[in-house]
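Components:
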Amino acid sequence: MGWLNPAHTNAERWAYVFQRVTGLGILAYVVGHIGDTSFFVGGPFGSGPSSASWSFDLALFENLAGHVVLAMVVLIVVYHGINGIRLILAEYGILFQRSSRPEYPYRAKSLVSMQRHLIWVAIVAAVLAALYAGGTMSG
Amino acid sequence: MRESTLMRLQYATALLALVLVAVHLLMQGVLVPYKEALLFQRVLAVYRSAVDASLLELLLVVVLAHGFNGLRIILLEWRQGAAWTRSVNWGTLGMTLAMIAYGTRTVVLATTGAVG
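Structure:
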C-alpha cells in the first residue's frame, strides 16, 4: 500500500491519494445505488415498477443521515471529476512544463502553478456542490 | 487487452462519465427539484422515455467499467504475481458484468414491466 504512505508528499501526491480514495468510495456508492434503485421495480425479485417498493427505498435515505451521506457522495464525485480532468491534462502533457535538470531548491519544475490551482478548484467546487446538495435536499 | 489500451479506455470512460454524471446530478436536484425528481410518476416517466432510459443504461455501463477498472489498477499495484493478476483481472471483469446485468434488469423492467 505504498500509495497511502504520507511520507514524501506534495500537493499533487495528496491529490492523487484523494483521487484513489474517492474513487473507491464512489465505486462502493455506485454498487449500493444500483442495488437501491432496483427497488423501483420491486427489488431483486420484483417484476415491474412498484410504488410501494419505491416508497420503502426512499424511506431508507430520505432522512438527515441519508442526506448527509448523499451530500458526501456529491463532495467526492465533484472532486474526483475535476481532479480527474487535471490528471488527464497531465497525462497528455498539457498544463505541465518539460522537466529539466534539478537545481536548488530542487522543486519539480514541471509542476507549474496552473495545474496546482486546479487542485484547489476541485476542492472548492466539491465543497460548494456538497453545500448546495445539502441545502436542496433539506429545503 | 494491453495495459496501455486499458488506460486509454480508463480516460475515455472518465470523459464520458464526466458528461453523463453531470447530466444525472443536474436532473436529480438542479434542473429538476430534488423532491420532484424522486416522485414515483416522475421516475417512471424518465424510464419510459427512450432517450432518458438509454442515457441511464449508458451511465450504468460507463461508470461500472471505469470504477471496476480503477479498482483493478489499485489491486494490481498493491500486489504482484501471475496468479494474483489473473484473479484480479477476471474478478473485476466478473463483478463489472454482474453489476451491469443487475442494473440492466432494473432498466428493462422499469421500461417495459407492468406498473404495480
